[in-house]
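User: I'm putting together notes for a lab meeting next week and I want to include a structural view of one of the chains we've been expressing. I don't have a solved structure, so I'd like a prediction I can at least talk through. The sequence is below, exactly as it appears in our construct file.
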Amino acid sequence: MKLSFLSFLILFSMGVLGQAPPKPYGALPSERQIKWHDTELYGLIHFTPTTFENKEWGYGDADPASFNPTAFDADKIVAAFKAGGLKGMVLVAKHHDGFALWPTKTTDYNISRSPFRNGKGDMVKEFEQACRKAGLKFGVYCSPWDRNHPDYGTYEYVQQYREQLRELYTNYGELFMSWHDGANGGDGFYGGARTTRKINRNTYYAWDTTWQLTRKLQPMANIFSDIGWDVRWVGNENGFAGETSWSTFTPVPAKGESTAFPGNLDQEQNPFGTRNGENWVPAECDVPLRKGWFWHPEQKDQVKSPEQLFELYLKSVGRGGALDLGIAPTTKGLLAEEDIASLKGFGELVQKTFKDNLLQKAVINASNTRGKDYRTQMLSDEDKLTYWATTDGTNNAIINIEWNEPETIDFIRLREYIQLGQRIEKVTVESFESGNWITVGEATSVGACRIIALYKTVNSRKLRLKIDAPTSITLAELGCYKK
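Assistant: Thanks for the context. Below is the predicted structure for the 483-residue chain, given as structure tokens.
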């Protein structure tokens, strides 16, 4: 007997053909945001004539002839990214100095006026191809502020800026990010005017119109800005989110400011997000590998160690966001050896720590399970598309874990099934020791990823997690790890 589609839906909802999934809760991520969450760790490359000036902020007056990285090798740089466990690269195709790393038709201040590849080079293309070859995602940052362009501050410049985005969106394959920061207006070269240009960033760029271009030409590119359309700035350049960090967000205008441009809103809540916020806007935690975003020879001893990077990883990726590391080539066009060594050590540390999930040799059960399609075995199957869930109305549950022999554990990692929203508000980890249950770790928000560093190294046969939410619970992955 064949069932009609309507009959199938009725039987499914009754549980005859399987338990219906939980209803979505709150704001939900888009497909491109889910792919961004899967990326977790990527790098931001700064490399313009500013590097050769040994500055952090280029004024826009550097001679294009100064840009001459004679040993540039995109493959070697990307190899260092991959060794560090980075899954993507955002290239600063144009910084505030206005120098374009591709042969754009919008301005003469571009790579074709430099000695690089005898004026025939396209560094955006070389980085993009190197990323594709190595299996890394690729994105671009094109600064809206341009301290070289003579028309900056006028309507004509905004049209030129959009054309720059159009070139980047159409000539370099699929992008996973279109990155924009909040630096806008001020002193500059401006074609020789050497003056200060002030703009109203609430209205000048007309982002509603500009970002329609992104959606049309790069529908899978996540837009990053100060608080973002797809991804928000975490509110600092220290590389970590708040202890509680929601991926949902409701913008709150700064005092006296318009809401026309989201980047000009109150940033106090950026590290934390908004519980039950109106939109899904997760946090990117950006931080330079050194003190500065550009390479400076005097910062050789200021490279973050693998251990420091690992701590940032726990407080960014491990709090539901992403870690964006600022990595800068030298004037030769390569990464410094100390930078390469730090990235490699960091990658090895993350790989070693999270390689073996001790949960896979444990017996797992829960105080409540929605049905066989949502059983606890889904927690350790290494598949983010399957998940354990509780029945409707069951907002508190306990997951029990037991091994044959005591296991040493330092970290617990949880991943919600975020396709149905961010639900969990509290997790308590307890270890059974000397006949008593002892609290060894706690967390609030979970979201795409939560790594709980336990208060102490635990050696136990039994753990349990007490989980609270305002609705039924979903959990896609759970892991127990030792250092």
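A couple of points you could mention at the meeting. The longest helix spans residues 155-171. The chain has two domains: 31-353, 358-481.

User: Perfect, that's what I needed.
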